[in-house]
Design brief:
- The structure is a single chain.
- With about 140 residues, the chain is mainly alpha-helical.
- It is about 45% helix and about 10% strand.
- The chain contains 4 helices and 2 strands.
- It has helices at about 15-30, 55-65, 85-90, 95-120; strands at about 1-5, 35-40.
- A two-stranded parallel sheet has the order 1-2.
- Helix 1 links the parallel strand 1 and strand 2.
Length: about 140
């Protein structure tokens, strides 16, 4: 089992990388391998956010996951850290703990899903889409 952590920051080993490493440490302590993939310096439209804007981006991304019936792993607070440089992020103990809890929760969910598959628990049957026109 392996988790791919996507670093969308233009800085390869900056603040986002530091946060992802905290989550990766928890996953690896739970026996789950990790790979960090750096997208690079090319900006992605709609994914650029700074400071408080990150919560709106996090919320928007999770809505897409929910619409696609994907499990969403949460932590005890918003999955973010604060700092203008990796050294500052390393001092954000609350943010790093949030990322560690995220990694532990992700490991738990992955192990539960694996145990369910091994026990013969199948995914729910897909309901056919019903589109409603609210104009009557």
């Amino acid at each position: 089992m392996k988790v791919l952590l996507v670093n969308g920051s233009p800085h390869r080993e900056g603040c986002t990388y530091t946060a992802l490493c905290a989550a990766a440490d928890s996953l690896e302590q739970n026996g789950i391998g990790t790979d960090v993939f750096w997208i690079g310096k090319k900006p992605l439209s709609g994914c650029i956010a700074r400071r408080a804007e990150t919560t709106a981006t996090w919320d928007q991304i999770n809505k897409y996951f929910g619409l696609m019936q994907m499990p969403i792993v949460t932590s005890r607070y918003w999955n973010m850290v604060h700092g203008a440089a990796p050294q500052q992020v390393s001092q954000d103990l609350e943010g790093l703990q949030t990322m560690k809890v995220l990694g532990n929760n992700m490991a738990y969910l992955l192990k539960c899903m694996e145990a369910g598959r091994k026990a013969g628990v199948s995914m729910p049957a897909q309901e056919p889409f019903v589109f409603t026109n609210f104009i009557r």
